[in-house]
Amino acid sequence: MSDQARTNTRPQTRRTYPSGYGIVEPVANYRPWDVDQQFQEVYALVRDATMVDIYRLWTLWFIARQLPDGDVLEVGSWRGGSGVVIARALDPSSGRDIFLADTFAGIVKASARDTYYKGGEHANTSVELVRGLLERAGVPQVQLLPGVFPDDRAHEIEARTFALCHIDVDVYQSARETFEWVWPRMVRGGVVVFDDYGFYGCEGVTALVTELAGRQDGSEGRLTIVPSLSGQAIVTCTGY
Ligand SMILES: C[S@@+](CC[C@H](N)C(=O)[O-])C[C@H]1O[C@@H](n2cnc3c(N)ncnc32)[C@H](O)[C@@H]1O
Question: Is the overall model pTM greater than 0.90, yes or no?
Answer without folding.
Answer: yes
